[in-house]
Fold this sequence. Notes:
Largest sheet: 5 strands, parallel
CATH superfamily of the largest domain: Response regulator
CATH class of the largest domain: Alpha Beta
Strand order of the largest sheet: 2-1-3-4-5
Order of helices and strands: HHEHEHEHEEHEHEHEEEHHHEEEEE
Distance between the termini: 76 Å
Low-confidence stretches: 1-25
CATH architecture of the largest domain: 3-Layer(aba) Sandwich
CATH topology of the largest domain: Rossmann fold
Strand content: 15-25%
Shape: globular
Amino acid sequence: MRAKFFFIIIFLLSPFFFLNISESRELSIKQLEERKKADSERLKEREKRGKKKFSKEITISSKIIFLSKERKTPPVLSNLDPILDDEGFYGVKLAIEDNLTTGRFVGHDYKAEFHRVLLEENLTEEYQKLINSGNKIFVVDLNEKEIQSLYDNSSSKDVIIFNVRSKSDSLRNDKCRNNLFHIPPSYSMLSDALTQYLVKKKWNKWFVVTGPDSNDKEYADALKKSAKKFNIKIKKEKIWDFTADLRRTAGKEVPIFTKGEKYDVLVVADEKGEFGEYLSYRTWDPRPIVGTQGLKPTSWHRTHEQWGATQMQNRFRRESGRWMTEVDYHAWTAVRAIGEAITRTKSNDISKIKEYLSGEKFGLGAYKGVKVSFRSWNGQLRQPILLAAPRSMVSVSPQEGYIHPVSELDTMGKDQPESTCKF
């Protein structure tokens, strides 16, 4: 009788149980369209009521410049992933909305302007025009050399810059600046995060494959330093310099390329994705692939669902109609950090923002389980690193057991004694 009663209870509750499960899963296209329609209707209702008003008189108004550069569309081996020309835009947009949630109560207004430097335009000249117009807060979607070109401008010392793309270690070390803050994890942070997990799995023998690009070489160099740091044996290293179309030749090229030394894992440095995806299932020995393909260390990934990330993912997709990328997440984090600093210091003075962001009081909830903060010695955002396969979240570093006197997050990347950054 009790068993029957228990079954009835379960049966009655099951619709609610399964409803909760379906709610937590990834939304279907139909559900996304329905939510977009609902959002549109709510927007019309808000417009009827009028714009949200500030509870207090506006005392601080801050303008944030999002600066990016037009790129030549590179040839690709796969057309599955679209080439985006709006990375960062929706991240900034959502962060401005979040900043205004508090700003409307304390009298702080936030606006963003988006500037894309065209191919035929000069980056430094356009940057100077923006400074001459009185702009002081910049979020830049630029590569290492382009960020360095901003240094040559004498006016740069009077502004604050947030890097949301470049992972270069040199920008955090010998080429660092005290007004330059880095949201993306550096190559050394990514390589340490990956290595910690491989050590945990006891995959201690590596075969490292490096692409021809300069970023590939910098990432591979970071991987080799991490291997030395964590006592990993690199059994073999090779440069991928094939020019053939891998869609037709991978089955023949890859087995021969990977034949030889015995190893536990194939570690790949291929930032552009020119060949890395074609290594899987074609190597001579059956081995897992990690690095820029396979199991990938990253700041953000579409499979990340913990710590409120699902809500962020769905919110972003409703707004943009696509997945949130790393650059989108970095842009959101940068603008939220700016808003947090202005709220706490009650000022948008550049020197006060820099001082607060570099201090111990700053901490930002960023859907990573712990508050993220900036390293005072090089402006790098310390943060957990996600380890993700293409369609699943595998782990999060730092791995259990790695300790540090200040923060476990500082077990990844250049710690203060190792840093060559001199402000």
